[in-house]
């Protein structure tokens, strides 16, 4: 590989190539119709975090969309390990994707498609980087409704992001950095790549429905339970977010990230709050726990071969 693998590598047709050279056929329905599911795991200091949970969600998503790939969990896991090893990245954002593929020439019947498995590993991505986490994010509650669960199941990780991207532009127009979408009843749901939590009087709540069950969200719920601070999964009104003591978002792309302004108004004293900070620190400490992590074997990088 001539290009710098540290810029990222991809798995296309079961071959590892520099990410800049990775291409998808234009007739693939993953591209033409967002007919795909995917998952994103991360590697921190050379170790995958909760990879099994990401694999569970990825395989469940493929089942729900009637997709099939000729690799079992172990084979996918091996490919992701090999990909990160080939990149040499110690902190990586690792995406696995299944697209519908393309129907037989002249047909629009998805049953004639051969589904396609792809993956890539690139340098770690932050929605809010560590410096931004010190001040906290400015979030707007978007006027944009998330595509309803009756149309697209949000528990299947999907590329239906036109609402999210419009919400982001709306946020930039209003001087904010990111946005949360709402449902038809004006409850907040999820944002571009994250779940949301509010802290009120020491109690935590996060939207129960209309959201992807994030692996980071789950980790925060477990941490809350372990520290005697139960998290309620329930409807969260837009006004509850505006009036909360603390607000934070969770994502594989950055972990637990404080929100200190909502729609221009300060949350609390406008600084990341104590509950958010404690959960953020606990989240990163879990990255040292063998039970939650898997070491990448970087020595596997040379001469990677796949064979199930
Ligand atoms: N909601 C949406 C729509 C997402 O795309 C993501 C992750 O990308 C999340 C929530 C957070 O999920 P996780 O914590 O598993 O990254």
Textual characterization of the structure:
The chain has helices at 29-33, 51-64, 73-87, 130-135, 162-173, 215-226, 238-242, 274-286; strands at 9-12, 15-18, 36-44, 47-49, 92-99, 116-123, 137-145, 178-182, 195-200, 203-207, 231-234, 246-251, 255-262, 265-266, 293-295. It is globular. The strands form two sheets. Strands 7, 8, 9, 10, 11, 12, 13 and 14 form an eight-stranded mixed beta sheet that branches. Strands 2-1-6-5-3-4-15 form a seven-stranded antiparallel beta sheet. It is α+β, with helices and mostly antiparallel strands and 308 residues long. The protein binds pyridoxal-5'-phosphate. Pyridoxal-5'-phosphate is lined by residues 40, 190, 193-195, 212, 214-217, 250-252.
User: Helix segment count?
Assistant: 8
- CATH architecture descriptor of the largest domain: Alpha-Beta Barrel
The CATH first-level class of the largest domain comes to Alpha Beta
Average pLDDT value? 95
Please identify the structural class as seen in this structure.
alpha+beta
Write a brief caption for the model:
The protein has 308 residues and is α+β, with helices and mostly antiparallel strands.
């Amino acid at each position: 590989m001539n290009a710098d693998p540290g810029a990222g590598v991809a798995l296309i047709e079961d071959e590892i190539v520099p990410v800049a050279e990775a291409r998808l056929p234009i007739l693939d329905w993953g591209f033409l119709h967002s007919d795909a599911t995917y998952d994103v795991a991360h590697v921190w200091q050379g170790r995958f975090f909760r990879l099994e949970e990401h694999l569970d969600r990825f395989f469940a998503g493929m089942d729900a969309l009637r997709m099939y790939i000729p690799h079992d969990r172990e084979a996918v896991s091996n490919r992701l390990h090999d990909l990160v090893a080939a990149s040499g990245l110690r902190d990586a954002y690792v995406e696995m994707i299944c697209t519908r593929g393309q129907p037989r020439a002249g047909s629009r019947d998805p049953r004639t498609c051969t589904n396609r498995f792809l993956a890539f590993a690139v340098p770690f991505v932050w929605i809010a980087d560590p410096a931004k986490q010190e001040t906290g994010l400015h979030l707007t509650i978007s006027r944009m409704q998330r595509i309803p669960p009756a149309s697209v199941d949000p528990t299947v990780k999907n590329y239906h992001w036109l609402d999210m991207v419009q919400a982001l532009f709306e946020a930039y127009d209003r001087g904010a950095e990111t946005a949360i979408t709402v449902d038809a009843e004006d409850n907040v749901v999820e944002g571009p790549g994250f779940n949301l939590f509010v802290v009120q009087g020491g109690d935590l709540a996060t939207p129960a429905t209309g959201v992807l069950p994030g692996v980071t969200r789950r980790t925060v719920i477990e941490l809350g339970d372990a520290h005697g601070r139960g998290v309620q999964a329930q409807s969260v009104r837009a006004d509850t977010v505006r009036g909360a003591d603390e607000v934070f978002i969770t994502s594989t792309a950055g972990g637990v990230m404080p929100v200190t302004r909502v729609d221009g108004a300060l949350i609390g004293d406008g600084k990341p709050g104590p509950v958010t900070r404690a959960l953020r620190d606990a989240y990163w400490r879990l990255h040292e726990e063998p039970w939650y992590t898997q070491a990448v074997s970087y020595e596997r990088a040379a001469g990677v071969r796949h064979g199930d």
